[in-house]
Design a protein that fits this description.
Layout: H1 3-9, H2 12-43, H3 46-73, H4 76-96, H5 101-122, H6 135-185, H7 206-219, H8 221-252, H9 259-278, H10 288-305, H11 309-313, H12 316-324, H13 333-361, H14 368-382, H15 384-397, H16 399-419
Helix pairs in contact: 2-3, 2-5, 2-6, 3-5, 3-14, 4-5, 4-6, 5-14, 6-9, 6-13, 8-13, 8-14, 8-15, 8-16, 9-13, 10-13, 10-16, 15-16
Length: 421
């Protein structure tokens, strides 16, 4: 482990935050899976499942910015503590009423509202815990914790549901939120770390604070550009998820059930590896905007090659390699796809980590929660596009052409970032 990571982990408040984040992310990601299964088991309806997905996304659109405004007024540590306790209590109550679809929707919506207050507090608190020269490494470690937790949650979701059933699973997830709350309770924020604004008069009305947020976005290209990058990062993931079943069936010729294991797992591992690499001294020499742009181009190339894995595997270099490899490890379209998924994960980390660091460096503690609340709302709005547009478009023109279209869109965004500085 490199020196910067050790320095970050030696900061006890950050270590407690990181451990809390791991338990929180595992709990919320398993919960999303469990709620979808619960809704489907009760109704055998895809429409009912869509209702659960909407209960995750609509609160972000409605409450994201407003939650950010209030989080900036409150103690972020107390917000993290309260939201985890609230979600734990809601899960315990939901376990009692887990056979009622309406109550599942209601509690899912309520948990998502609590999460909207959690999000503008979790990442924005990092600059209050670590010094500026360690921010990139702290975000890299934080990002690897998030992605690693998603991977763990993906691996545990089905076994939890099968072995424990929905009631005990919900109770276990409530315990995870409480464990996270305990870690957060140990966090102590040094007042000297707080980054205040420049002393200008502040309008404390909600409308005034939102106005100050838009002023910041319009006047600071680094902040607005990073929000664009972080939104793009999430939309890419959702777009691929939306057309994943079609990609598995039409291009890979594998069952839909195999796709998450063969694609999501290497992508999540790539994100973890990318985040850890970014914490090394070598990457600290690069401009953060440059790293994010590189990530956009790598994402574009990876997605462009996804529909053509069989053609890549048939190239002379790979056919020559296969002559010397045992039959069991012959390079084929699946191996190409796994490698591209891993590369896409690394690229996503190149976008995620530097962009988060820029947001934290360029905003004061009085504005940071609103910035992340705005980001959460934008992601909520754009997350509907892959579900509504990309999936339907893939049915009309084919998965391969949609992937090519996404890749060229990424190239255009990357080129624009090089031209417009």
């Amino acid at each position: 482990m490199n020196n910067r990571l050790l320095r970050v982990l030696n900061v006890k408040p950050f270590l407690f935050l990181w451990l809390a984040e791991i338990f929180t992310q595992i709990a919320i990601n398993i919960l999303n899976f469990i709620l979808i299964i619960m809704a489907f088991q009760l109704t055998r309806s895809n429409t009912a499942v869509s209702g659960i997905i909407l209960s995750f996304t609509i609160p972000a659109i409605i409450f994201g910015v407003i939650a950010g405004v209030y989080v900036d007024r409150w103690d972020k540590r107390k917000v993290l503590l309260a939201t985890n306790i609230i979600r734990a209590v809601l899960l315990v109550i939901l376990a009692i009423f887990s056979n009622n679809l309406f109550l599942i929707y209601l509690f899912s919506f309520a948990i998502s509202i609590a999460t909207q207050f959690f999000i503008p507090a979790e990442t924005p608190i990092i600059p209050l815990l670590v010094k500026k020269d360690l921010l990139l490494s702290a975000n890299a470690l934080f990002g690897s914790g998030i992605y690693g937790s998603v991977l763990i949650a993906y691996a545990l979701s089905s076994p939890f549901f099968i072995f424990f059933g929905k009631i005990y699973t919900l109770s276990i997830l409530a315990a995870f939120f409480m464990i996270a709350a305990i870690f957060i309770n140990f966090i102590r924020v040094s007042k000297g770390n707080k980054n205040k604004s420049n002393g200008e008069s502040v309008d404390l009305t909600i409308g005034g604070e939102i106005k100050s947020l838009f002023k910041l976005l319009s006047n600071t290209k680094e902040v607005s550009g990073s929000i664009l990058m972080l939104t793009l990062s999430q939309v890419i993931i959702l777009a691929i998820a939306a057309i994943g079943p079609g990609y598995a069936n039409q291009i890979l010729k594998i069952s839909v059930e195999q796709f998450p294991l063969l694609f999501v797992t290497p992508a999540a591992l790539g994100m973890v590896v990318g985040a850890v690499l970014l914490s090394t001294n070598y990457f600290h020499k690069f401009l953060k905007q440059k790293l994010a742009t590189i990530g956009v181009f790598i994402s574009g190339f990876s997605i462009l090659l996804l529909p053509y894995g069989s053609k890549v595997a048939s190239k002379p270099i790979f056919t020559a390699l296969n002559k010397y490899l045992p039959n069991i490890v012959d390079i084929n379209i699946l191996h190409i796809m796994i490698f591209l998924a891993f590369t896409l994960g690394i690229a996503n980390a190149l976008v995620f980590v530097p962009s988060n660091t820029i947001l934290q460096e360029e905003t004061s503690d009085e504005l940071r929660g609103k910035v992340y609340g705005m980001l959460n709302s934008i992601v909520g709005v754009f997350s509907l596009l892959p579900v509504i547009v990309v999936g339907g478009l893939a049915d009309v023109i084919g998965v391969g052409k949609v992937l090519v279209g996404i890749s060229f869109t990424l190239f255009l965004i990357g080129i624009s970032r090089l031209v417009i500085k």
